[in-house]
Amino acid sequence: MEQTVVEVVPISHATLVLKWGDTTIYVDPTGGGEMFAGQPPADIILVTDMHGDHFSTITLEAIAGSSRLIVPQVVKEGLPASLVLQTTVQGNDQIIREKDIQILAVPMYNLPDAQNKDFHVKGRGNGYVLEKDGFRVYIAGDTAGTPEMRALSDIDIAFVPMNLPYTMGVEEAADAVLDFAPRKVYPYHYRGPEGLSDVTAFKALVHAKNQNIDVVLADWYAR
Question: Residue 17 and which of 8, 54, 156, 194 are 20 to 30 A apart at CA?
């Protein structure tokens, strides 16, 4: 069902393209305009946070076209003046609609009692839940397995990070995914200082407790 509703195109690390009917969504576009060669122009661009693996002004200037940019305030503050007029700022827990898609901004952050608590503070960046005609896509961004993530429901496709020390480890990611039980989950954003996280282990941990979750091991680092 998912492939007929939303086509997922992994680009690199945190960057992806979603083709949802006649709407094309770019998420955290980085790497320069050439990374999107052959892709349809974006109708919507979502940026989750201020860090360079999510936010690239050079890339945005190359590919923004007439798209609508949806960003947290901290990202708007870093945008070139040429893009500000086509930008909407969205804060945590706010809902907007664009191209008949409902977009909910979900808090994304490191847990306050963790050693990595200062990398991503609550309220600065956004994860996003996109919904149209009852179909729901969750883009987690840089986050731990927060209560907000675990409380999600009826997610058809999820994109979940796992790269310590910046987000969470494989075990925490699997535990969080088991809590909110998306129909399909893509490990993404899984490169850290020690190399690539073991996404095969993530899949095994999820399937040990719930084989109904489709874990898709796409290659985010081929380019």
Answer: 194
